[in-house]
Structure formats: C-alpha cells, structure tokens
Amino acid sequence: MAEEKGTLSIHTENIFPIIKKFLYSDHEIFLRELVSNAVDASQKLKKLASFGECKEEVGDLKVTVSLDENAKTITISDNGIGMTADEIKKYINQIAFSGATEFLEKYKDKGEDKQIIGHFGLGFYSAFMVASKVEIVTKSFREGTEAARWICDGSTEFEISPADKATRGTDIILHVADDSKEFLDKYRLQNILDKYCKFLPVQIEFDAKVVNNPNPIWTKQPSELKDEDYINFYKELYPFTEDPLFWIHLNVDYPFNLTGILYFPKLKGEFEVQKNKIQLYSRQVFITDEVKDVVPEFLMLLHGVIDSPDIPLNVSRSYLQADSNVKKINTYITKKVADKLSELFNNDRKGFEEKWNDIGVFIKYGMISEDKFYEKAKDFCLLKNLKNEFFTVNEYKERIKDSQTDKNQDIVALYSSDPGKQDAYIQSAERKGYDVLLLDTLIDSHFIGLVERKNEKFHLKRVDADTVEKLIDKDEKLESVLSEDQQKSIKEIFEKVISKPNMTVTVESLPVDELPVSLTMPEFMRRMKDMAMGGRTGFGEFPDQFNVIVNANHKTIQKILQADGDEAKSKIAKQAFDLALLSQGMLKGNDLTSFIKRSVELTLV
C-alpha cells in the first residue's frame, strides 16, 4: 500500500445532531446559553462605547426573555451590538467559531474584559435541543447597516433575508418542539432563570419583572460593604436559614482570578456535609454546585459563592475539568479559611470560644483531612472540659501534666462522650483531682487518634474505659482486704452469675468509695468500634467486649462472702452486676424488671 497523507473531513450533517442532542446533558441549559450570549452582546457594546467605536447613546442595557404560549415561542432579546448579515454568516454559520474569543483577541491590547462569557462558539446551538425552528432578527449598532433575519429548522440549511427592525440588538426566537413543551411553562422558565442567571451582570427581565441581581456583593470590594450587606446576601442565597457565624471575602487576581464569599453556618455540632451549599460561577454565570475539586472536602461544610474565569470548564460549561489552576485555587481557599480562623482566635478569643460548638466539628474535620490546615489549626483548635473551659492542646497538656502524668511519664487526658451516662466514672476521676474533657461529636474518635499521633507521649482515654487507677497508672497499689482464696471465690461467683462469653471478670483492689462492680470496654476496642461508624469497617461487626471489674475492697463484696448459702451470694452479686449495667444504660427489658423486683426484696429484708 502506498503512503498517503490528507486532511480529516467533518460533515456538518453528522456533527449537527451531536451538538443538538449530546453536547449539553441537561436541556434546560439552552436558556442559560442564550441569555449569556445576550449578556455578552451587551457587554461588548459597553466596551466598544468606552473605546469610542459606538457613536449612538448606549442607554440602559438589558436582556428580555418573553414567552408566547399560544405561538409556542420563547424569545431572548437584547439591545447589544447586534449583527449584520455577514456577521451572521461568520458567527452563526461557522459552528464552533467563537465571537467572544475573536473579540477578546482583537481588543487584548486594551485590556481583557473579564465579563465576556462565551468562549467555545457552541452555546447558540443549544437552542435546537428544544426548538424545531430558530429565528434570529438582528440589527448591528454600526451606522448604515441593515437588519437581517436568519431562519434554520435544525438541518444544515438556513435562510438569510432583510428584516424589519429599527433598533440595534438581537432577538432569538425559538419555536418550541413538541417534545419540549415543558419549557412553555412560565414557572419552568422562571426556575431556570433563577438557577443560572440570578447574578448575570446585565439586567434580565422576564414576565415584566427583573429576575436578577447584576451587582452581587462578591463583585465589590470588602471596603464597600457592611455586615448587613453580607447577611442580606446570605439570606438571598439561603432563605429561611439562621444568620451565619462569620464569613470570608475572597478577592485575588494573581496567579489566578477568584472572587467570592464563603460563610460559616451554624452546624450545632452536627456533621452535615451538604454538597450543594457552595455555588460555582464563571463570570457571574452559575455553573454547578459540585465543587469538590475546587474546594477541599472539609470546606463543603461552608456555604457561599465562588466565581472564577480561570476555572477550566468542559465545552458545555456544565462541569469542571482537571487543571493546575484548580489545585492552586483549592490551596488558596484552604489558606484563606485558616487565616480567617486564626485572626478570629487571636483578636477575640472569647468570641471564638462562644462559637466553638458550631465551628469545632468543621475545624477538626479540616485538621484530619488536610495536613496544611492542621499545621495552622493546631494553634486555634480548642478542647473543652466539663466545666466549659477551653484550651488549645498545648495549653491543656500544661494544665494537667502535674496531676495526670502516669508512671511512664505520659500525659493522659480523660474525656467523656456522654456525661449523663458516664457520670459515675466522671465522679471517680474528679475525686482523684483529674480533669475531664467533653468529646462527644461523631468525628471525635478520628480527631483523638490525630491528636495522639501529632503529640508524643500524650494520650486521650475515655473515662469509662477502665478504672481510674488504670487509666492513669501511677504504679500505686492498694492492699486488698480479701485473701487470695476469697478473691478466687468472688471471681467464680460473678462468672457464674454473669455467664456471658463477651464479659471478662477481674477482681481488683480499689478505693472503698468506688463502685462495687464497674463495667468497662477497653479503650482500643471501643475506639475501633467508634471509628467503624456503624459497621463500615470490620470492627463495626464485632460483638462488644467488656471487662467486669469487681472492687475487692467494697463492703458489698464482703457481704457476698458472708451471705448464707450460694443462692443468697448469687442474688447480691447479681444485684451489684445489674447496678453496673444500669450505670451504662445496658439494663433493659426483663432484666430491668427483675432488678427492680430484687431491689424491693433486698430493701425489705
């Protein structure tokens, strides 16, 4: 076979159905694209007027969307630059020729206008996703030009003829197809405009009302704005929600362009990742609320708006494409959030502490998921104790090191995940002069592991994970009032009474004012189960393992040994064990009823 070279040919008959049906995944996008084109036409006119190329008065620029249900038409009108017949042939008949790109290239020496939206030259053809026929009636702003009409039925053929239009601008008239009648509903169009065009920079009218805010606050300088402006805008984005705690105004033009407002909502200690709360815009056109690549995952807890012309979009402007700028923006936003939190902490620590219940989950999540955020956040992340006092990790280590250092010179912090349920253990710790933290959110099991990894010789143990003497082992041994034989006998009595394979009985010498029987889950086992988050790892499926700790020095244990007969011994032992279950909220149903009856009997004896 002889070597051959040539050029690839593209047949418009084949590519047109692809553009019409598959370029845009959601057909409602047609309105966004056509309104954006109309906005571009208006912005271009404003720019040309500033260059002295437009001789007539520009006046008030606006885009009007009209619906005629009887004629089955949707019309998008503007009073922008308009087109001549030759420009129609150039910009409309050449598929994928971008007039916006040509405009920016032509006037690049006079400064790029970041408000020009279009780039790919394909948006107009989205009209054919919903229209069986499309008309363009247009008149150029240039003096001495004639108005023109362009008509196409979705095939590769078109007609251009003179038109009767006295004023500059363009009307795009869509004759809606039978399979797209849903778009002949006024409320459907209103919803699309609200979604995509709410902040376009030119006034948009529909149904005789202005439907957009052309000057959202993220386009302004922070010095121009008051707190009231930020809160009102938040209400505009999220009606019927509580006021935000605070916000960050993003405004950078190098090495990329980015503006926006990020709000910290009230989380109330809940782990609420709602991925549709940050909206991504490009030149004030709504793109998506899926911003996971632009914004780190932990920042999904925030609300607000990000706008950047430098975020790479696919041809249909429906989603992001991978790009180095995305990573740079991601890093920048993380830094801005950390800097804002650090500023709040350093300038108003009391106010920061008051907000901790709302922002603590967010900060901990960020520290777990982003090393760079951790490095900044470790200086303002707070630990709260049961006395409602706040400390950074370093402050807390200093606070407890004298009283809560064990025999290995490790500092041990005790914490409660449920003070009501763990009250007996908390009181036991406090009798020893120990402090107890409150760590009761879903993310705290992961946060605890992070703190221990980052802080050598510092451990956190849940207050009910063992006896307090073992939680902070200072190698101080209490003498037992029981002989070895008596300890063995007591152990056998309890093992017989309990008779559960997931419970291990030990007899220990504890202070006389501690409970006669304590029920604990080893710290390692409990932590692994917490991190399993309801069974998403293997540990979540394991049965609970408990230690039953019998206090050899408590008078109830001596009473068991002195009881007359095995039945009497077992009854008292069962009562003491049920008290331990009750303190953990584990005594239920028939066992609880039997405990109550037995309590009455023992009380009356």
UniProtKB/TrEMBL annotation:
Residue positions annotated to bind ATP are 33, 37, 78, 83, 98-99, 170, 317
Concerning Pfam families, the annotation shows:
HATPase_c_3, HSP90
The UniProt keywords, alphabetically, are: ATP-binding, Chaperone, Cytoplasm, Nucleotide-binding, Stress response
Record keyword Ubl conjugation present: no
Q: Which domain of life is it from?
A: Bacteria
Q: Which family does the entry's similarity section mention?
A: Belongs to the heat shock protein 90 family.
Query: What name appears for this protein in its UniProt entry?
Result: Chaperone protein HtpG
- Give the source species: Sporocytophaga myxococcoides
